[in-house]
Amino acid sequence: MSITTSKSADGSVLTIRIQGRFDFSSHQEFRDSYENDESIKEYLIDMRETTYLDSSALGMLLLLRDFAGGDHANVSITNCNSDVKKILTISNFEQLFAIK
Amino acid sequence: MSAKPLKILIADDNDSDRMILQAIVRKQGHVVVTAKDGVEAVEQFKATAPEIILLDALMPRMDGFEAARIIKQLAGEELVPIIFLTSLTDAESLAQCLDAGGDDFLSKPYNRVILEAKINAFNRMRIMHSTLQSQRDLIAENNDHLLQEQQVAKTVFDNVAHLGCLHAKNIKHLLSPLSVFNGDVLLACQKPSGGMHVLLGDFTGHGLPAAIGAMPIAEIFYGMTNKGFAMTDVLREINQKLKQILPVGFFCCACMIDMSFARGDVEVWIGGLPEAVIYKADGELIKIPSNHLPLGVLTASRFATETYRYEMSEGDRIFMWSDGIIEARNVDGDMFGEERLYKVYQDEKNPSHIFSNIKQQVHNFIGEGERDDDLTIVEVEMVAEDQLGIDADARLSKSALMGPVNWGLSYELRGETLKDFNPLPLLLHVIMEVPGLRLFSGQVYTILAELTSNALEHGVLKLDSNLKATSEGFAQYYALRAQRLSSLDDAWVRISIDHQPENLGGVMSIKIEDSGEGFDYSGFKETKMNKDRYSGRGIPLLASLCRRFEYMGAGNVVEAEFAWQPE
Question: Using the beta-carbon criterion (under 8 Å), do B446 and A24 form an inter-chain contact?
């Protein structure tokens, strides 16, 4: 399990990449990945290499969404495998995030 | 003088000449047979098989020239030196002796010193010729033997590194090995979920050493793909295996694709091979350059699995090739090159002819040129899933009938173990041995994760989800979790899992008990997801994923049933 980040050239888009299992054990690392930068306008969660997630991971995604401005937040979740997508769908996350 | 006497045939119609020669040769220690004319000479040759022949040119009945021709023909591959005896001295006649198959000539009158030297010289040549021949025969025999062994090994190799579903209707391929074994490997396998993995690998070198490396690749590729592993998992495993078994300096350039016919996209990993190409039905050409090191170079921790993903519509094609195609050389030593390759895409208006056109162009280009590498090219077309021409039943029976499907286990975590051991990877590993279930690994993980963390966090540690109402509370919750875990004593969580087959799939029953006091679970099923809360999603998730899900007893026992069927 590891979380890596990268910023777009102009510094406005932050890509957070989650590898492996996304669960409570990564909550500190996940928070640290975005909390210290106020200049970000758009967040991209890249789940290309995310194998599993549980309900605490859903909570963490919501924490990010609220940090990023709640209903005005610009957070997308990309490259989910079908299982991850199913969990997000059951939880109606497509109403809160742009899931690509 | 050779130690072993030679049998020498002397043919001469002149009795005195013959006698003189016979005497000289006998004195030198050889055995002599004689003939009075060409007909006799041929008969004596057949009867006595002499090693060297001294043949008079002009004789009655059949002259020496004719006799020489017949004897040489009879001798076949064996070298029987013929020295013409002649009183003729004009160049033309002497040349005629050699033209008729003679190896040398000796002018009358005979000089015994020269005669002896010639006999010895031709005997050396005869021995050398016969040594060469027996060595050639030995080499040919060994080579036959080797080829035969290779054919047997090849059968084994082909069974392991079989072509998988390369016969699917959407795949065209050319595998043209330089020797019996191929240093290029081309594998295709349909995924249990219906998509397709295709891998083209090009080992350093070719022939047997390269082919040996191809065997583990094929095993891993087919084994893991059949079990439903993702492309990146397959690549990671292959890389690790090759890194482990290949000597330094040997590796495998590769390109692997994961094509989803349902989603209409393709994921591409490419390391060390020439760029792959997507050719859209509308003529657009997308080049996908290699962005990784070949397989078997990097250690597992440094191996990267970033992939490219492209949308593909029906009729779009992806091409992969080994550098053997681009570096194919013609008689002049020029390379086929990318320019010629891409020109085919510009010139060929019918997309379905591109593959055969490239094949033809490379073939024409090489012409009589020498091949120095294996040639491999593959085209995979995006089609509707039912157009693949692969027997769906065969696929299902393969995935559903093999492997453990009927079993149960109980796993109890106590004291220390409960504090710092996550049982999920281990359990998941066991569960995923159920063929076909891997497709649902994400759901199985979520179910197990929810149930066990509920048992631990709420049952054993008595943590309250309401803490998670704020960002700070969220952190506090997990801080408290760590704190209570560390002071844990005598607690346990027992996980029982049972799997039974059902139709083509199965039912997994999970029972989790904990040493906590339980809770009042009346009405827990009515829990709804509240989008403003950071917690409370576990129960609705479980209710949605499981066929049956209920708390029992004091609330410290929960049972859930997950039923699955292949799609």
Answer: no
* B471: in domain: yes
CA distance B442 to chain A (A): 5
B304 neighbourhood in chain A, CB within 8 Å? none
Query: A51 touching B, CB under 8 A?
Result: yes
CATH of the domain at B493: 3.30.565.10
ipTM summary value: 0.81
Q: How many domains does chain B have?
A: 3
Residue B567 — pLDDT band, cuts 50, 70, 90? low
Half-sphere exposure at residue B280, Cβ-oriented, CA atoms within 13 angstroms: 12
Which residues touch B137 (CB under 8 Å, ≥6 apart)? none
Separation of CA B564 from chain center: 35
Q: Determine how many CB atoms are found less than 10 A away from the CB of residue A71.
A: 8
- Neighbouring C-beta atoms of residue A29, cutoff 10 Å: 13
Report pTM. Answer: 0.55
Same domain for B309 and B364: yes
Q: Highest mean pLDDT: which of B19-23, B109-113, B207-211?
A: B19-23
Give the pLDDT mean for A32-51.
88
How far apart are alpha carbons B315 and A19 in whole angstroms?
Answer: 34
Q: Are residues B100 and B223 in the same domain?
A: no
- Test B442 with A83 for CB contact under 8 angstroms: yes
Tell me which residue of B94, B104, B53 sits closest to B74, measured CA to CA.
B53
Q: Do A54 and B442 touch (CB under 8 A)?
A: no
CA B445 to chain centre: 35
Considering the domain architecture, whether residues B215 and B90 belong to the same structural domain is answered as no
- Looking at beta carbons, which residues of chain B come within 8 Å of A54? 445-446, 449-450, 453, 538
CATH classification at residue B102? 3.40.50.2300
The answer to whether position B144 is within a domain reads: no
Measured distance CA(B297)–CA(B509) in Å, rounded: 43
A93 — contact with chain B (CB < 8 Å)?
A: no
- Determine the distance in angstroms separating the CA of A11 from the nearest CA of chain B, rounded to an integer: 22
Q: Check: CB of residue B366 under 8 Å from CB of residue B333.
A: no
Query: Which candidate, A12, A66, A10, places its Cα nearest to that of A38?
Result: A12
User: Residue B223 belongs to what domain range?
Assistant: 161-390
The residue of B432, B454, B534 whose CB has the most chain A CBs within 10 angstroms, and thus the best one to mutate to test that interface, is B534
Residues from chain B that touch A60, judged by Cβ atoms under 8 A, are: 474, 534
User: In chain A, what are the domains?
Assistant: 2-99 (3.30.750.24)
Two tokens, residue A100: 């690509």
User: For B306-351, how does the pLDDT look when each residue is reduced to its tens digit (9 = 90+)?
Assistant: 888 899 999 999 999 988 888 888 888 888 888 889 999 988 888 8
Q: Are residues B416 and B354 part of one domain?
A: no
